[in-house]
């Protein structure tokens, strides 16, 4: 059976006029984007000014802030551990699936190898070696030779 010829990919060649036109459009687009960004202005994240030293409950506020930070860190750690556990579960499930597939493949190969061995034995019956083997058996059991 003949294979059909592979489909050809479209050529990437362009006329210079078209290529320069595309580059120009790209430049204009980038220019517009930069202009819009300038109009909107930069938004820097505001820095935390901290607690003024004249505040009456400065130590308490600092402790609370520290506790908040610790809670956030603990939450992040818990989430990270949960993600890792989920990942391990998935990996174990995949490993079990792969093991089952491998077992099936091995069983299939074994059954196919057994059937191949049977066919090989059948084929061997017709070979010269098997003929000689059969002849020797006949000679052993018979007292006379057929010439």
TrEMBL record:
<keyword id="KW-0539">Nucleus</keyword>
<dbReference type="Pfam" id="PF08701">
    <property type="entry name" value="GN3L_Grn1"/>
</dbReference>
<feature type="domain" description="Guanine nucleotide-binding protein-like 3 N-terminal">
    <location>
        <begin position="16"/>
        <end position="89"/>
    </location>
</feature>
<feature type="region of interest" description="Disordered">
    <location>
        <begin position="1"/>
        <end position="129"/>
    </location>
</feature>
<keyword id="KW-0342">GTP-binding</keyword>
<dbReference type="GO" id="GO:0005730">
    <property type="term" value="C:nucleolus"/>
</dbReference>
<feature type="compositionally biased region" description="Basic and acidic residues">
    <location>
        <begin position="95"/>
        <end position="113"/>
    </location>
</feature>
<feature type="compositionally biased region" description="Basic and acidic residues">
    <location>
        <begin position="57"/>
        <end position="87"/>
    </location>
</feature>
<dbReference type="InterPro" id="IPR050755">
    <property type="entry name" value="TRAFAC_YlqF/YawG_RiboMat"/>
</dbReference>
<dbReference type="GO" id="GO:0005525">
    <property type="term" value="F:GTP binding"/>
</dbReference>
<feature type="compositionally biased region" description="Basic residues">
    <location>
        <begin position="1"/>
        <end position="46"/>
    </location>
</feature>
<dbReference type="InterPro" id="IPR014813">
    <property type="entry name" value="Gnl3_N_dom"/>
</dbReference>
<protein>
    <submittedName>
        <fullName>G protein nucleolar 3</fullName>
    </submittedName>
</protein>
<keyword id="KW-0547">Nucleotide-binding</keyword>
């Amino acid at each position: 059976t003949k294979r059909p010829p592979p489909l050809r990919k479209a050529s990437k060649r362009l006329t210079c006029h078209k290529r320069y036109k595309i580059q120009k459009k790209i430049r204009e687009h980038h220019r517009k984007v930069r202009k819009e960004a300038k109009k909107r202005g930069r938004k820097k994240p505001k820095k935390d000014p901290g607690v003024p030293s004249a505040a009456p409950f400065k130590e308490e506020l600092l402790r609370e802030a520290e506790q908040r930070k610790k809670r956030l860190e603990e939450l992040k750690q818990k989430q990270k551990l949960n993600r890792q556990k989920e990942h391990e579960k998935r990996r174990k499930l995949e490993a079990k699936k792969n093991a089952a597939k491998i077992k099936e493949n091995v069983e299939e190969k074994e059954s196919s190898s057994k059937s191949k061995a049977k066919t090989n034995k059948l084929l061997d019956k017709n070979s010269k070696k098997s003929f000689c083997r059969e002849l020797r058996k006949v000679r052993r059991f018979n007292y006379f030779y057929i010439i």
